[in-house]
């Protein structure tokens, strides 16, 4: 079934057919994400100066309120996904509280989103992305989001780079699709992605190294002594995408100023960790596997270390002293 070039919709449906008990609800949910991200992709490609630099609250020449792309992406995703009826609840980086769509009363899933990750870089034309994480609804209320990461039923991201790519997993491998803008479809380009078991690249904001703990300093020094290359875009989707394809380690650690780091567990760390693990890699907060952490609030942060299995194993040796 993993034929290079097949359309994402077909791939989703064929994947679902392997589970006779499936109702089609997850497929519809995934397709609604697919459609929303195509709109975001096309808008990013066409973005004029006013979209990029526009400040929320300003009024444009048509007399409409100007919104920045991260706010627009948030609104499109929420509208699309709420309207699909598949989601009982949505959580977004851009919104304080969970949203319970009117049409989603019988929805089987909840979804956590980072609508436009890395958006602080957009005015310098750096890659940005959309991250999503889906859990099965098991109770009433916001508690549906407070499940361990390994309970995700699907996760993925879209990177709006030199081409637009969607990577996703339903825990049957990590698969990558590239948007063909001429036909408007995501086509399978990276089936059953397997990341190298060891890489040659480390990706971390080294500007904060004075605030790091000793074990982390020693670990990074050791990588330098082994001639690892440094690459840090400052846009998680782009940095993790490279790590998935080329191996190595991506990290956003906790430090003396921010013990929990910066990245959010529900819609940044957990979905990326599922993709990494499904591609043969490993993800940890420095003590525990990220997928074993149970969220206790929607926007909680966690330290993140993810990448090639042997690189993370070695990091953990340093962390344990
Ligand atoms: P954002 O969700 O506000 O865009 O912030 C998250 C981003 C990540 O994409 C990236 O990994 C990180 O912030 C970079 O932070 P820093 O500039 O501190 O290195
Ligand atoms: Mg983000």
Structure described in brief:
The protein is 31% helix and 21% strand. The protein is built from 8 helices and 12 strands.
Description of the molecule:
The protein is of the alpha+beta class. The protein folds into 2 domains: 183 residues, Fructose-1,6-Bisphosphatase, Chain A, domain 1 (2-Layer Sandwich); 119 residues, D-Maltodextrin-Binding Protein, domain 2 (3-Layer(aba) Sandwich). The strands form 2 sheets. It has a 7-stranded mixed beta sheet with strand order 1-2-3-4-5-6-7, with helices on both faces. It is globular, with a radius of gyration of 19 Å. The structure holds 2,5-anhydro-1,6-di-O-phosphono-D-mannitol (AHM) and magnesium ion. Magnesium ion (MG) binds next to strand 2. The site of magnesium ion (MG) has 4 residues, from strand 2.
């Amino acid at each position: 079934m993993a034929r290079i070039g097949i359309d994402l919709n077909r791939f989703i449906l064929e994947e679902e057919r392997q589970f006779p008990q499936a109702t089609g609800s997850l497929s519809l949910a995934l397709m609604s994400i697919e459609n929303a991200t195509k709109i975001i992709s096309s808008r990013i490609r066409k973005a004029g100066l006013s979209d990029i630099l526009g400040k929320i609250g300003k009024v444009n020449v048509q007399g409409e309120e100007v919104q920045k792309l991260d706010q627009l992406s948030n609104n499109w995703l929420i509208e699309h996904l709420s309207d699909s009826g598949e989601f009982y609840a949505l959580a977004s980086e851009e919104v304080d509280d969970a949203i319970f769509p009117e049409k989603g009363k019988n929805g089987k899933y909840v979804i956590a989103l980072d609508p436009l990750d890395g958006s602080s870089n957009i005015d310098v034309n750096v890659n940005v992305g959309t991250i999503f994480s889906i859990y099965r609804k098991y109770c009433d209320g916001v508690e549906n989001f407070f499940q361990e990461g390994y309970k995700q039923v699907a996760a993925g991201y879209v990177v709006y780079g030199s081409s637009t790519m969607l990577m996703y997993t339903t825990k049957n491998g990590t698969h990558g699709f590239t948007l063909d803008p001429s036909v408007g479809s995501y086509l399978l380009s990276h089936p059953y992605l397997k990341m190298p078991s060891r890489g040659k690249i480390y990706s971390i904001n080294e500007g904060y190294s004075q605030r790091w703990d000793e074990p982390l300093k020693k670990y990074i020094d050791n990588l330098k002594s082994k001639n690892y290359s440094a690459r840090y875009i400052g846009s998680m989707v782009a940095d993790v995408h490279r790590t998935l394809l080329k191996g190595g380690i991506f990290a956003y650690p906790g430090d003396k100023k921010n013990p929990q780091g910066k990245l959010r567990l529900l819609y940044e760390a957990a979905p990326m960790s599922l993709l990494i693990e499904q591609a043969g890699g490993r993800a940890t907060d420095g003590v525990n596997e990220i997928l074993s952490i149970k969220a206790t609030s929607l926007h909680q942060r966690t330290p993140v270390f993810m990448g090639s299995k042997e690189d993370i194993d070695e990091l953990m040796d340093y962390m344990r002293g």
